[in-house]
Amino acid sequence: MSDRQNSTEVPAADDFVLGLDVGGTKLAAGVVSADGRVQAFTVTPTGAGDGPEQVIARLCRLARDTVSSAGLRLADLTAVGICCCGPLDSRSGVVHDPPNLLGWGDVPLADLVAAELGVRVWVENDATAATVGEWRFGAGRGIRDLLYFTVSTGVGSGAVIDGRVFRGGRGNGGELGHTLMVADGRLCGCGARGCLEAYASGTAIAARARERIDDGGHSTLAALTDINAADVARAARAGDALAHAVWRETTDLFAAALAGFINVFEPQLIVLGGGVARTGDQFLVPVRERARVLAMRPAGEIVEVRQAQLAEKAGVVGAAAAAFDRVTTGE
Ligand SMILES: [Zn+2]
Predict the structure, then answer these.
(1) Residue 191 CA to ligand 1 centre (angstroms)
(2) Which residue from 82, 133, 276, 312 has the fewest beta carbons nearer than 10 Å?
(3) 1 found inside a domain
(4) CATH number of the domain within which 56 lies
């Protein structure tokens, strides 16, 4: 955050933001124009075991290389947007020991990158960034109230309310994946029991199938050493009863959760991304139909449920979109 005296001008089509995606396994970078086009998209392994200093040095090298591959100079950038797994403070740009970046402690990521690159930097929770990406440049363009979910290893989420990005007090708000669904239920990665994520994440889908097999259930999945959510989806499509039951239970529970969120937010649109949602209609159709039935009227009748559009560049585009949002709103 080299400069917090934000201008509030709306970005022009030739404004560029560098989007950086800091993940536990890979770092990604891309130059994103104000109309959402991505240039010089680059990915490199994080090497998280090397610790924060080395990873940030690697990130800054990737940033410089990507900007020059796009035929630009750092001075041509309006801002740098970084998305990173939380917890973090999006106002100060400090990352607080994320679970997928061991040994990071309290790292002033925005300050360190801004000092190295000489460009103003904003850091955003990865689920919030993905939400803003879909809102500005993906499935949610032009929508005033939307919810976004990424259903993959975990269940991340974010919200746009009244045409504004919802961040909560420090940028970690909108964690709908940790809504309590089952009292004293399954243990969640967050340490609580019974969260939506503990049932509907890809990891949880695979674990629930494995548990049914271990309890004596018959399934074609029993032959596999490692089961993942894609295996469960495939087996369910092929008519495997155990896989089908797990899938049905997942879509029922996810739909019940969405019905609650629809009642709270009355969104026009819910966007679903991540590996589980990429199974397409197998996930989307039952979730959409059931959620609309369970939700109150008229909210349940007006809400649309669509698949996310940004796919593998979601992190980079989302990070850039969130930075554009900061430039535009001055928030
Ligand atoms: Zn949880």
Answers:
(1) 6
(2) 312
(3) no
(4) 3.30.420.40
Please tell me the predicted confidence (pLDDT) of residue 10: 59
- Give distance in angstroms: CA of 188 to centre of ligand 1: 5
Where the chain has pLDDT below 50, the residues are 1-8
- Which residues form the domain of 75? 16-133+313-329
228 shares a domain with 275: yes
Q: Which residues contact 122 (CB under 8 A, 6 or more apart)?
A: 1, 79, 80, 81, 82, 90, 93, 110, 322, 323, 326
DSSP one-letter string for 214-246: HTT---GGGG-SS--HHHHHHHHHTT-HHHHHH
Q: How much distance in Å is there from the Cα of 116 to the middle of ligand 1? A: 36
Ligand 1 centroid, distance to 176 Cα (angstroms)? 9
- Which residues are CB-neighbours of 205 under 8 A, at least 6 positions away? 229, 232, 246, 247, 250, 276
What's the 269 CA to ligand 1 centre distance in angstroms? Answer: 24
Give residue 17 CA to ligand 1 midpoint distance, Å: 33
CA dist 40 and 62 (Å) reads 11
Same domain? For 304 and 173 the reply is: yes
How confident is the model at residue 5, as a pLDDT? 41
Distance (angstroms) between ligand 1 centre and the Cα of 102 equals: 19
Q: Are residues 210 and 324 in the same domain?
A: no
- Residues 315 and 246: their CA atoms lie apart, in Å, by 29
Q: Considering the domain boundaries, does residue 102 fall inside one?
A: yes
For residue 77, the CA-to-ligand 1 centroid distance in Å is: 37
Instruction: Report how far apart, in Å, the C-alpha atoms of 77 and of each of 67, 119, 120, 324 are.
Output: 9, 7, 9, 11
pLDDT score, position 102: 86
> How far are the Cα atoms of 31, 245, 322 from residue 236, in angstroms, in the given order?
40, 8, 37
State in Å: Cα 151 to ligand 1 middle.
Answer: 13
Other beta carbons less than 10 A from residue 9's beta carbon = 11
For 130-172, the pLDDT digits (tens) are 999 999 999 999 999 999 999 998 999 999 999 999 999 888 8
The confidence score (pLDDT) of residue 171 equals 85
